[in-house]
Automatic annotation (TrEMBL):
Gene Ontology BP term (one): phosphorelay signal transduction system
Keyword vocabulary terms for this entry: DNA-binding, Phosphoprotein
Modified residues (4-aspartylphosphate): D58
Name of the protein described by the UniProt record: DNA-binding response regulator, NarL/FixJ family, contains REC and HTH domains
InterPro entries: CheY-like_superfamily, NreC/VraR/RcsB-like_REC, Sig_transdc_resp-reg_C-effctor, Sig_transdc_resp-reg_receiver, Tscrpt_reg_LuxR_C, WalR-like
Species of origin: Chryseobacterium taichungense
Entry coiled-coil feature ranges: none
A Pfam family assignment: GerE
PANTHER family cross-referenced by the UniProt entry: TWO-COMPONENT RESPONSE REGULATOR (PTHR43214:SF43)
Domain Response regulatory: residue ranges: 7-124
Domain HTH luxR-type: 147-211
Amino acid sequence: METNNKNVLVIDDHSIVRQGIFLLVKKHFLNVTIFEASTLNEGRSIIKNGNIDFIILDINFLEGNSLSFVENLSIEYGDSIKTLIFSALEESIYAFKFIKAGANGFLSKLCEQEEIIHAFSKFFESGKYMSDDLKERLLENMIRKSGATPIELLSLRELEIARLLVSGLSNNEIASKLYIHKSTVSTYKNRIFEKLGITNIPALLNFLNVN
């Protein structure tokens, strides 16, 4: 597939993902130079030092999630750099937050290779990519105009902890995994329950599955 000369930065903390994207892009797209970063800070440095056109970005890193990174990128560079979120996390929960923050699309890592190639082609060509399901959800949201759903009121950190809670991890295990204090996990848990109007983990699981 032909493209104009493009510089693409892949920011992901898993080397196998970065290598996979590199091989896929090199095989199917011409005139594309790939840059790689394993952390958000490393990504910021490359952006400042290079003429980056496109960013393929994961959500969760050891230094935190990338939502504020996207927000700051949008403020500082406007529409000159296009960002595609590439994550295994649920599109229905996370895509709206990142698009609202300034991302130009969302692609699931769970897609088949053919869909990923198609998505990259659309992204490099138009600077945007959304699945048909996401487009439909966005349209429904615009038509409904009824404000945010309860699940959309959760911050990314709250969503992350909610997912860990329903996976069966204890507060201590979550604290260890996220490098935060046990009491902080309890605070987040109480805040999540309050925002969603629930009182237990089964109700939280149902909320995440439905929304």
